[in-house]
From TrEMBL, chain A:
Entry keyword annotation includes Transmembrane: yes
Membrane topology: Multi-pass membrane protein
Primary residence: membrane
Pfam families listed in its UniProt record: COX3
Keyword Transmembrane helix: yes
Name this protein carries in UniProt: Cytochrome c oxidase subunit 3 family protein
Matches recorded under InterPro entries: Cyt_c/ubiquinol_Oxase_su3, Cyt_c_oxidase-like_su3, Cyt_c_oxidase_su3-like_sf, Cyt_c_oxidase_su3_a-hlx
CDD domains reported for this sequence: NorE_like
One CC-aspect GO term: plasma membrane
Span of domain Heme-copper oxidase subunit III family profile: 26-254
Keywords tagged on the record: Membrane, Transmembrane, Transmembrane helix
Gene Ontology MF term list: cytochrome-c oxidase activity
UniProtKB/TrEMBL annotation, chain B:
Taxonomic placement: Bacteria, Pseudomonadati, Spirochaetota, Spirochaetia, Leptospirales
A Pfam family annotated for this UniProt entry: COX1
Gene3D superfamilies attached to this UniProt entry: Cytochrome c oxidase-like, subunit I domain
Main location group: membrane
Name this polypeptide is given: Cytochrome c oxidase subunit 1
One MF annotation (Gene Ontology) recorded for this entry: oxidoreductase activity
Length: 254, 533
């Protein structure tokens, strides 16, 4: 049962051959990926401008991010790119069952990424390291939520911080550094917008992989026709690639 | 053709291939999608035109004439946003590009027909969302949505408005992507890149701009939404952001977008000039590559919108020089068109009149652009009516003239019927003269110092403003006559035949209206697109 028993594929009427259609589709997908990169390009430009203007904000801000969780997510995404590539390869070779497993693993990786992201985000909401106006306790933007938290933590002993506030010494130190930095919510504006839009792309990618997985299950793709699988794969690699830039930029550079 | 003798009822073409409204809404035929774009975009044009007439009416006298300042600001915003994002940017590529591009290169359809239909739906959805803000919290930012006014001061209606424009931008990207792949991959045998009609070159260059510039607009608008909802502070000076960054981003898209508006128009003019001069176009390669050159340079000139924003003098100098550079490829085109007409058998049918109108008005618009590109002059003219007159001469005088020319030129191919040439000429007289009456006084107003966007003005400016308003009625009349010509043509137009104008490009070799799959047999091309003599 290694060869897929899918329905014979007929190319659309305005193409000369299946190969012609495949080449055209591939060019279209690459052009679309160019637009994705350019869209993130705007964010990267804005990030680098503000990073050079306010290095201290970005230093204090990046200390708030968990390098461990970020690194885990990087590994997860890199691995998912590998399984995606395997999936395409298996579809091309007609190894249907292996292709299904590889694509399913890719989707699972995408979900793991989002779950880790969820924990990162909720922690940020918890300590108040959120963008712009939400970082402040009042309309006049005089006190930040972090300032309130640091004040509360400053009044208790280290053990109590650990137990009641779930805050270890490292985090306490980082939050104090952040609190001493003027206008730090700007960093979290960038963090949430950049990682948020990337997260939406991960979700979109997972849906697309699910779509091609269904195609594999229904024998709609196989060695003669695998354009959608390859297209989605390219999209997934770009999503991965963008994260590979985001991770050092947000987590490490500061 | 043997078909010519049979009556219209028995002819098998793309219009009667399938029947019913549903067959139109689900069609994958590029020709039908072109017509759907035509209907949609002309409706937007009517709406934007009504807003324009109302804005001009309000400015008939100083102080309050018809509406409050608040209503005026909103009308001006909708006029700008509708005209730019829903009419002039998609206009020629989406309507005529869709219809003629595949035929001109001997293809049966665009590369991605489903994506093409999706682009249309995205334009509709975007337009609906944008239009719905008419009934919501006020949007009075102008079509540029400049921060910090849009992000901090004004109402929340900006959010749906901007999201609507974002979706329209997606539509633009997908159309551009489709055209690039179609041009690369679907040319019939023998049509090398140097044998494609100049309209295709223009659409191709436009498509490159659409794909490369629009994503930057997308992220800019998303950031504006994030700014308004989350207060991310990227543009908000109170939070450490920079409102001028918005302008940089915005014009990094919107300046190339100006060429998204004008390049297809230039493509149309190249077709018209060649056909109605009965001559091989002069300097084919120069016109073709100048489209690419304009597309390339357009990315490097956005800073001329920001001469007085506090950027460095050196930056101002650089942007000034590069901006003037755009004049070179533009002039190459213009001189080549004139050289084509020289000793040609020029026929002044309505489309050719619109082509000549384009050259006249676009030249004025372009030359006044040189004033604005000079940093010293710009400080005087900045944000005055001089700028308004300049960009209307370029965009309206350029794009809408070409749109009307294209409409009458390809009408026989699309419908199989001719428009009445007299009606077309009357329409041209009204639009052309009305246009000059409207916008020429605005150059003077601007030079005298009347600021743009304002609700009120000094009594000194009254006469010129009244002249301008009367001119707007003439333009309105001209477009109504154009509409009458179209409706008359649809109902009572003469039968067109395959090639009523004597055109030489591929679309004139097939029946009008074209059959469902464009060509019965894939054409094989052995020469250039304009082989007159």
């Amino acid at each position: 049962m290694s060869t897929a028993n899918h329905a014979g594929f007929h190319h659309a009427h305005h193409f000369e051959s299946a190969e012609h259609q495949y080449q055209s589709s591939k060019q279209g997908i690459w052009l679309f990926l160019v637009t994705e990169i350019l869209m993130f390009g705007g964010l990267f430009v804005a990030y680098s401008i503000y990073h050079s203007l306010y290095p201290q904000i970005f230093h204090a801000g990046s200390k708030q991010l968990s390098i461990t969780l970020g690194a885990v997510n990087t590994v997860v995404l890199l691995f998912s790119s590998f399984t995606m590539a395997l999936g395409i390869n298996f579809v091309q070779r007609g190894l249907r069952l292996k292709a299904i497993i590889a694509l399913a693993v890719t989707i699972v990786c995408a979900l793991i990424f989002m779950v880790v992201k969820y924990f990162e985000y909720t922690h940020k909401f918890h300590v108040g390291t959120v963008p712009g106006k939400y970082a402040y306790t009042d309309e006049t933007r005089s006190t930040t939520k972090v300032a309130a938290l640091v004040k509360e933590a400053g009044q208790v002993s280290a053990e109590e911080r650990e137990h009641t506030l779930h805050m270890d010494e490292e985090e306490y130190k980082h939050l104090r550094l952040l609190n001493d930095t003027h206008n730090w919510p700007l960093f979290f504006g960038f963090y949430f917008v950049m990682s948020g839009i990337h997260g939406l792309h991960v979700l979109a990618g997972a849906c697309l992989i699910f779509w091609v997985l269904l195609k594999v299950l229904r024998n709609k793709v196989g060695p003669e026709y695998y354009t959608p699988v390859e297209g989605v794969g390219l999209f997934w690699h770009v999503v991965d690639l963008i994260w590979i830039y985001l991770f050092p930029l947000l987590y490490l550079v500061g | 053709m043997s078909h010519a003798a049979t009556s219209a009822h028995t002819e098998h073409n793309y219009l009667n291939h399938q029947k019913g409204i549903w067959s139109w809404l689900t069609t994958l035929d590029h020709k039908r999608i072109g017509i759907m774009y035509f209907i949609a975009i002309m409706s937007f044009f009517l709406l934007g035109g009504i807003f324009a007439l109302l804005v001009r009416a309000e400015l008939f006298t100083p102080g309050k004439t018809l509406f409050s300042a608040d209503v005026y600001n909103r009308m001006m915003t909708y006029h700008g946003a509708i005209m730019v994002f829903m009419v002039i940017v998609p206009g020629i590529p989406a309507i005529f590009g869709n219809f003629v591009l595949p035929i001109m290169i001997g293809a049966k359809d665009v590369a991605f027909p489903r994506l093409n239909l999706m682009s249309w739906y995205m334009l509709m959805i975007g337009a609906l969302i944008t239009g719905s803000t008419l009934f919501m919290d006020r949007v009075d930012t102008g079509w540029t949505f400049y921060t910090p006014y849009s992000s901090i001061k004004t109402g929340m209606g900006v959010i749906p408005m901007v999201l609507g424009v974002f979706i329209i931008g997606f539509s633009s990207i997908l159309t551009g992507l489709n055209f690039i792949v179609t041009t690369h991959k679907l040319r019939a045998p023998g049509i090398t890149m140097t044998r494609i009609p100049l309209m295709v070159w223009a659409l191709y260059s436009t498509a490159i701009l659409q794909v490369l510039a629009t994503p930057v607009l997308a992220i800019t608008l998303l950031l504006l939404v994030a700014e308004k909802t989350l207060g991310v502070g990227i543009f908000d000076p109170q939070l450490g952001g920079d409102p001028v960054l918005f302008q940089h981003f915005f014009w990094f898209y919107s300046h190339p977008a100006v060429y998204i508006m004008i390049l297809p128009a230039m493509g149309v003019i190249s077709e018209l000039v060649a056909t109605f001069s009965r001559k091989v176009i002069f300097g084919y390669t120069a016109i073709a590559y100048s489209s690419l050159a304009i597309a390339g340079v357009s990315f490097l000139v956005w800073g001329h919108h920001m001469f007085v924003s506090g950027q460095s003098e050196f930056a101002g100098l650089l942007f000034s020089v590069i901006t003037m550079l755009v004049g070179v490829p533009t002039a190459i085109k213009l001189f080549n068109w004139i050289a084509t007409m020289y000793r040609g058998s020029v026929r002044l049918d309505a489309p050719m009149l619109f082509a000549l109108g384009f050259m006249f008005l676009f030249t004025i618009g372009g030359l006044t652009g040189v004033y604005l590109a000079s940093t010293g002059m710009d400080i005087h003219f900045h944000d005055t009516y001089f700028v308004v007159a300049h960009f209307h001469y370029v965009m309206v005088g350029g794009t809408l003239m070409a749109l009307m020319g294209a409409l009458i030129y390809w009408f026989p191919k699309v419908t199989g019927k001719m428009t009445n040439d007299t009606l077309g000429r009357i329409s041209w007289v009204f639009i052309f003269s009305g246009f000059n009456v409207t916008f020429y006084p605005q150059f003077i107003l601007g030079a005298m110092g009347m600021p743009r966007r304002y609700y009120d003005y000094l009594p000194t400016f009254t006469e010129l403003n009244q002249m301008s308003t009367v001119g707007s009625w003439l333009i309105g009349t001209g477009f109504i006559v154009g509409l009458v010509a179209v409706i008359h043509g649809l109902i009572a137009g003469e039968k067109a035949g395959n090639d009523p104008w004597g055109g030489k490009t591929l679309e004139w070799t097939i029946p009008s209206p074209p059959p469902h799959e464009n060509f019965d047999k894939t054409p094989v091309v052995t020469g250039g697109p304009y082989e007159y003599r």
